[in-house]
């Protein structure tokens, strides 16, 4: 019995070593005010690949679970579960994202490790059984665009209001979150330059920044 | 002394000629550009050309008003020989524009007075102006001044409008806000502002304090606080929300305990 597991692990490590697993997310974040979101969407429609189909809309529920390895000062491991409100038969998604690396000024984007996998709705139960607890949850609604390997999302972030239907949620800001990201195997730093160029095309409508959200602002 | 003046005149005319040649070349290259790549010519390129021309014009007028240059208007040009015979030297000097120094051309090229037609018109106006009485002259001058002022005002207004428009356009990029970006990114990244557990932990304490406050505030009005629970709850919620904002403000003042 030990052998097949061993070979599976071996092939996984081999795949990791040969850098064919796209587990690095290169990304930039920004925001656009509600008043200008139509202008941004219009521009993205022109810049991105899905010209004929138009923007793809999404309406997701995201839950962030965390499990602590040690006492409070230590950062717990966090796992995100996502489900689509608008496609109820779509699988749920479990995602791990690591701590973002800001890099210095020469680094055009941030990088974080990212792994995601499709799963069923029992994932919440499973995680709870493992000892994870719900850290926070939110609702994301917006549009997604593609340009080559790049994914562009324009989304409104809503806070979950306890005991209310998904309609009774409140937006946490008067702006839409804009994210540019590409999943690539590690070491493909050239892609970061592409993201940067695309981000520059959206200026001055959106100012993209590298924000380390793990350290809170003081 | 005389020889020095002549030399001075020669050098200054030479420098003026040089500048004028530069100007001429710039104009001809611009005309060439417009004629040959008129389709691909863009506005900034054309503006660059105009800037070049204006630079040359400035240098011409500078060299004319330079200190060493004698007053050229004190000199006169006299046609010494007028002939209908073709002059090769002249053709070469004028790049083929003038072939003969003849009677029909000389008055045009060496003119120092206005065109005869213009002169005639001026001559017809001058006696008219002379015949006017002082009062009507003053009146007309005042009227003219008024019109000019009016036009000036219109131009000024248009300029102001244009400037305010451009300034509003440049100040417009309020399409994104760094504060909002941070709020959103921190919310998504670390759940700041989304975590609901924090609120219930604070609320009970607040409710108690609030109850006390409300009781004190209500008893003088003669209403038993327990009698209208629905209203009470509503009021409490309102009060709680206001206090919540206070707490937020306080936390920004003392940021170190929230880390």
From TrEMBL, chain A:
Keywords: Activator, Nucleus, Transcription, Transcription regulation. One of its GO terms (cellular component) is mediator complex. InterPro entries: Mediator_Med18. Signal peptide: none annotated. It is found in: Nucleus. Pfam families: Med18. Component of the Mediator complex, a coactivator involved in the regulated transcription of nearly all RNA polymerase II-dependent genes. Mediator functions as a bridge to convey information from gene-specific regulatory proteins to the basal RNA polymerase II transcription machinery. Mediator is recruited to promoters by direct interactions with regulatory proteins and serves as a scaffold for the assembly of a functional preinitiation complex with RNA polymerase II and the general transcription factors. Belongs to the Mediator complex subunit 18 family. Component of the Mediator complex. This is Mediator of RNA polymerase II transcription subunit 18. The lineage of its organism: Eukaryota, Metazoa, Ecdysozoa, Arthropoda, Hexapoda. The gene is MED18.
Automatic annotation (TrEMBL), chain B:
The keyword Transcription applies. One of its GO terms (cellular component) is nucleus. Keywords: Activator, Nucleus, Transcription, Transcription regulation. It is found in: Nucleus. It holds the Pfam family Med8. Its main location: nucleus. Belongs to the Mediator complex subunit 8 family. Component of the Mediator complex, a coactivator involved in the regulated transcription of nearly all RNA polymerase II-dependent genes. Mediator functions as a bridge to convey information from gene-specific regulatory proteins to the basal RNA polymerase II transcription machinery. Mediator is recruited to promoters by direct interactions with regulatory proteins and serves as a scaffold for the assembly of a functional preinitiation complex with RNA polymerase II and the general transcription factors. Component of the Mediator complex. This is Mediator of RNA polymerase II transcription subunit 8. It comes from Trichogramma kaykai. The gene is MED8.
